[in-house]
Amino acid sequence: MHTLSFDHYTIKVDDLAKSSKFYMDILGLKEIENRTRKEYIRWFSIGNDQELHLVEGDNSQIKTNIGVHIAFRLAHFDKFIDHLKENNITIHNSKAKAGNITVRADGIRQVYFYDPDGYWIEVNEAANPEL
C-alpha cells in the first residue's frame, strides 16, 4: 500500500492577475516560486509545504457547486468575516444561502464564498484559537 500526502490543488482561472490578487489580498496567501517557469501559472503556499496553483486558460466548461470546495481554517473568524464584508464579498452558509453562516454540530462556524472564477471557498474557525 502507498502512503499519500497532499501536495497541491490546481484551478483553471480566466484572468491570472485578477485571481492572484484575490488569493493574496482576500485570503492572504503568499506567492511562491513557480518551478514550471510558465507565465500562465502562479503558485501560492497554503501552508505545510502544500500549494495552490492558478493556471490561466479557458475555464468555460468547468461547473462548480458548494459541495466541491477548498477549505481553510483560522483563529480570528469574526475579523475575517469583517474583512470579507469590507471587500464586498458575499458570505454564504453550507446550503449556499447568501448572508448566512453555518454552525456545525461541534460549534465551529463556517462561511462559504466565491473566488473570481466561481470556485467555492470555505473558511472555518479553528477549534483551538492559538492556530
**Overall pLDDT:** 95
As a whole number of angstroms, the C-alpha radius of gyration is 15 Å
Provide the succession of SSEs.
Answer: EHEEEEHEEE
Are there runs of 5+ residues with pLDDT below 50, and where?
Answer: none
What is the strand tally? Answer: 8
* Corresponding CATH architecture of the largest domain: Roll
Question: What does this protein structure show overall?
Answer:
The protein is α/β, with parallel strands linked by helices. The protein folds into two domains: 49 residues, 2,3-Dihydroxybiphenyl 1,2-Dioxygenase, domain 1, CATH 3.10.180; 57 residues, 2,3-Dihydroxybiphenyl 1,2-Dioxygenase, domain 1, CATH 3.10.180. Helices cover 15% and strands 31% of the residues. The strands form two sheets. The protein has a four-stranded mixed beta sheet, with helices on one face. The longest helix has 10 residues. It is globular.
Q: Keywords for this structure?
A:
4-stranded mixed beta sheet, 2 domains, 15% helix, 2,3-Dihydroxybiphenyl 1,2-Dioxygenase, domain 1, 131 residues, globular, alpha/beta
Short description:
15% of the residues lie in helices and 31% in strands. By secondary structure, the chain is an alpha/beta fold. It folds into 2 domains: 8-56, 2,3-Dihydroxybiphenyl 1,2-Dioxygenase, domain 1, CATH 3.10.180; 69-125, 2,3-Dihydroxybiphenyl 1,2-Dioxygenase, domain 1, CATH 3.10.180.10.
How is the secondary structure organized here?
Layout: E1 8-13, H1 16-25, E2 30-32, E3 41-45, E4 51-56, E5 69-74, H2 77-86, E6 102-103, E7 109-114, E8 120-125
Parallel strand pairs: 1-4, 5-8
Antiparallel strand pairs: 2-3, 3-4, 6-7, 7-8
